Amino acid sequence: MAGASSGAAGSATAQEHWSSRWAFIMAAVGSAVGLGNLVRFPAEVGANGGGAFVIFYILCVVLIGLPVLLSETLIGRHGQSSAIESVKNVAAESGASRWWSLAAGVGMIAAFLILTYYSVLAGWIVYFIGIFGSDVAGAIGSGDIGGGALTGRSVEDVQAILPGLQADPATMLVMHAIFMAITVFIVARGVLGGIEKVAVYLMPAFFVLIAGITIYGAFTGAFSSALEFLFAFEPARLLDPTVQLSALGQALFSLSLGSALMITYGAYASRDTNLAKTSAQIASADTSVAIIAGLAIFPIMFAAMAPGVLDAVLAGEEEVQGGLGLLFINLPVAFQSMPAGSLIGFLFFIMVFFAALTSSVSLLEASVSWAKRRFGVSRLSTTLVLGGIAFLIGAWASFSFNSQAEFQPLDFLIFSGQPVFGIIDELTAKIMLPISALLVAIFVGWVADKRLIDSENGLDGGLHKFWRFLIRWLCPLVITAILVSGLFPGLLGQ
Ligand code: TRP
């Protein structure tokens, strides 16, 4: 571990910083772009009927996500500490109660909970890299890389890979452990030596891969059906409170907001970084990746669908089945029949892995940066302990897929019918992240010293006024309204 000492060294309280604005952007985009874009977004689009969800999602990103993103990064940069301490510092300077740090506290717990199941999911990715990787190796060995993937397996076999993995807790736990160990290793090396380095290498590689796969999908898949599905306008569903809450939750989740994280990363930003501009770049990169992922995944999947089924989906008569299975069942089946399918499948899962890793690292860093100060322990020990606890909770939650599938401890509201795995996802994305984002908006819009905020945000003129309006009025009101109506749709008499 000689190499680790440079990053992990230093006292537990020294504030680290990114080496450049580029590094900040890569790390923040790395956090934002992840399984949320590649797995959760397509699954939510499918479950919420396509176009209406996408439109509402984009509205949420621009009108809520972006102003909150700027608020979080500016709290961090001014507070210069962990998320909780940064909010306390800004509150102290503004003469406000230190209890506002609850905004970051709720978020930090949410990030930690997300990490527990994120790593289980990412473990599946590792498993699929292994499957497609061995297939590529076999194809190269036999000199035939041009054929479909997973040769020698029937469609039923391919469909059985994910259920097979879920029924095999030992393998699933090993994959989960591998992924968590890599995450811990990177975070333990520190902000500069670990998090930044990984982001600066992996994110550009990710962008090259996703561009290649999208172009491939556009030529070989059902691209126009995918466009139709993603952008079909259904005004009625725009008003559906469950669609709205799903879209808000997804926007916050995808931008890593309401989770202490962007406060934490903002604290590593230098004084001369223009936070408004940087936030806009982060949000547009993340949203583009979500849309591009839809344009990469749905054409490939639709191409493999029976025509009658596809028509029903496009007509809104049938939901795209699958949720999480979308990526792990339908897509591998599609790769199986495509030219050079094993290679494309392999590259696809490598790409997802890069995105997942730069996100899981951020999910862990949100609590590590707080705990190492709070308890005055080294980054290495903090990372090992927190990573270990997250591993154990994730391991327990992963039994949701077999022995514990019937264990649905919270059978009400949005939790009904959900095993532990789904409960953690719903609780974080649809309750904790919105609450944390709501508190951040009220804090920055109403409580914190205006001069302090104005000196950090990098905005002037009309844009500044617009941002202030959004953060003072629109964000608090809309988040509250969506939260209440989405959680209690019965209130609206539906
Ligand atoms: N944004 C990531 C994704 O889309 C997940 C993520 C990373 C996250 N850090 C977060 C989500 C903090 C919520 C909070 O996959």
Q: Architecture, according to CATH?
A: Up-down Bundle
- What is the beta-strand fraction? under 5%
Number of domains: 1
CATH class: Mainly Alpha
Task: Give descriptors for this structure.
494 residues, mainly alpha, Amino acid/polyamine transporter I, 22 helices, 75% helix, disordered N terminus, binds tryptophan
Can you put this structure into words, describing what you see?
- The N and C termini lie far apart (59 Å).
- The model is unreliable at 1-11 (pLDDT under 50).
- The chain has helices spanning 4-8, 21-32, 35-47, 51-79, 83-93, 102-141, 155-159, 161-166, 169-188, 190-220, 223-231, 235-238, 241-254, 261-267, 275-303, 307-314, 325-336, 341-374, 379-397, 420-447, 450-456, 461-487.
- With 494 residues, the protein is mainly alpha-helical.
- It has a single domain, classed as Up-down Bundle (Amino acid/polyamine transporter I), CATH 1.20.1740.
- The protein is built from 22 helices and no strands.
- Helix 2 packs parallel to helix 15 (275-303) and helix 15 packs across helix 17.
- Residues 31-32, 34-37, 111, 114, 253-254, 256, 259, 261, 359, 362-363 line the site of tryptophan.
Summarize the structure.
The chain has a single domain (3-487), classed as Amino acid/polyamine transporter I, CATH 1.20.1740. The chain is 75% helix and 0% strand. It has 22 helices and no strands.
Write the layout of secondary structure elements.
Blueprint: H1 4-8, H2 21-32, H3 35-47, H4 51-79, H5 83-93, H6 102-141, H7 155-159, H8 161-166, H9 169-188, H10 190-220, H11 223-231, H12 235-238, H13 241-254, H14 261-267, H15 275-303, H16 307-314, H17 325-336, H18 341-374, H19 379-397, H20 420-447, H21 450-456, H22 461-487
Bound molecules: tryptophan.
